[in-house]
Amino acid sequence: MPRILAIDYGTKRTGLAVTDPLQIIASGLETVATAELIPYLENYLNTEEVETIVIGEPFYPDGNPAQLAGTIRELAGKLQKRFPNVRVALQDERFTSEDAKAIILQSGIKKKKRREKALVDKISAVLILQDFLGHR
Description:
Blueprint: E1 3-8, E2 13-19, E3 26-33, H1 37-47, E4 50-57, H2 69-82, E5 87-92, H3 96-107, H4 111-114, H5 117-135
Parallel strand pairs: 1-4, 4-5
Antiparallel strand pairs: 1-2, 2-3
């Protein structure tokens, strides 16, 4: 069974998460420089079977689209063109960064490691993927 891959897109870094082949467990995959996202995905999709790419869609708490929303929709279109055999879906990502920071804090990870923004991005991608799995 193919995997589902999630993207927490950022202007500098992008967090990635992926399911196991049975699509039950979401795990952090990597945090990549956003400029390297497409080459990373090309490589990953050449080695792993992925049926869906889920991209976190940013909204403000009041439900209005956040500033990056247009960029995210452009990315979704670009990925759909580049990978026509893979479904591209958007998932509301409100509060995922705050939730990721809380999870990191509660996990007991040392203070120095908690400051790593790449870890927040990766955990945010896991949360986006978990939400997607819970809503399908």
